[in-house]
Amino acid sequence: MVNPSSISLVIHCACGQKYGCKVAPRHDGKMNGSIACPACKRDGTDEANRQLAATLSVPVKISCACGQPYAFEIIPQNGRMPATVTCPACKRDGTAESNRQLAEILRLPVPVKIFCACGQKYAFEIVPRDGRMPASIACPVCQRDGTAEANDIIAKSFEPQAAPPQSVSVLLNTVQASVAPHLVDALKNAVVQELASQRRELLAAQQTATAELTELARRLEAVQTPLLERLNAYENRVQELEKELGEQSKENRELLKMKINMLREQIETERGANRLNFN
Ligand SMILES: [Zn+2]
Ligand SMILES: [Zn+2]
Ligand SMILES: [Zn+2]
Predict the structure, then answer these.
(1) pLDDT for residue 176
(2) Backbone torsions φ then ψ of 272, nearest 5 degrees
(3) Cβ burial 76-88 (10 Å sphere, 16+ → b, else e)
């Protein structure tokens, strides 16, 4: 797990200069201020934000009760989802399950306070396992088992907190966690212009695209495909999608474009990571 209060980044400036910086990102995972190359003064904030997003984002994988799996990466805020998330197929809310996974990955303790039937109150903090107590707990006075109550409290702690309807900016942060900056701009325009239902569709389309890319990356990873072959696999998928793009209706075109953009981004990321490895 990354300590978000101090993250070391190395920026490779276009002028050839490499420089390091230690940053404490804002609660939304972005740079708190801007940075510039010490040699040419070129702004490095965008690149730093990209690196922060890659460092801080946490993968979430949901198997919806309807049978639809979906996955995305998110920068948690205070260890929780910054916005609600819904299944792209049935629109069932997946926020509680997402919060449970985030808590598990980040190993966040949940405060539990139990009022025992004997009148005794007792409180503790616990890092849940699979969203439940890792062991049973009993009242310190009467020894009555409090595990079921503790499990209820833990489950409730993952529920999305009652909040006003999700704002456009919150939704954009959600999307931003896993897509390329130019795509976020495109989405921003689209989201501002469209109605709430359509925003949901965009998010669902983005989740579908993320799920597909995640699956492709996982398959390539599983067989330890060398970098060049991985890049080829991505490029091939881009070409297939571009071919489909010519033949599709308008709605499908948006999803295909999104997938293509995400694949391009993945190619850039892997190329970039490779450069770092060899430097
Ligand atoms: Zn420079
Ligand atoms: Zn579903
Ligand atoms: Zn008791």
Answers:
(1) 45
(2) -60, -45
(3) bbeebbbbbbbbb
The rounded Å distance from CA 149 to ligand 3 centre is 12
194 strand-pairing partners: none
Return the percent helix, strand and coil in the chain, to nearest 5.
Answer: 45, 15, 35
Q: Tell me the CA distances in angstroms from 36 to 19, 30, 93, 108, one per residue in order.
A: 9, 16, 42, 35
> Ligand 1 centre from 29 Cα, in Å?
24
Centre of ligand 2 to C-alpha 90, Å, is: 4
pLDDT of residue 4: 53
Please give the radius of gyration of the chain, using alpha carbons only, rounded to the nearest integer.
22
Token representation of residue 180:
């390329």
Give the span between the Cα atoms of 63 and 51, in whole angstroms: 29
| Ligand 2 center to 211 CA (angstroms) | 14
| DSSP-derived 3-state class of residue 16 | coil
Answer whether 270's CB lies under 8 Å from 230's CB. yes
Span from the CA of 279 to the centroid of ligand 2 (angstroms): 45
Q: How far is the CA of 273 from the centre of ligand 1 (A)?
A: 19
Give the type of residue at 144. Answer: R
Per-residue pLDDT tens for 111-163?
A: 999 999 999 999 999 989 889 999 999 999 999 999 999 999 999 999 887 55
Which residues lie at CB < 5 A from ion ligand 1? 13, 15, 17, 37, 39-40, 42
Q: Whose atoms come closest to the Cα of 119: which ligand?
A: 3
Q: How far is the CA of 65 from the centre of ligand 2 (A)?
A: 6
CA-CA distance, 74 to 119, in Å (whole number)?
A: 42
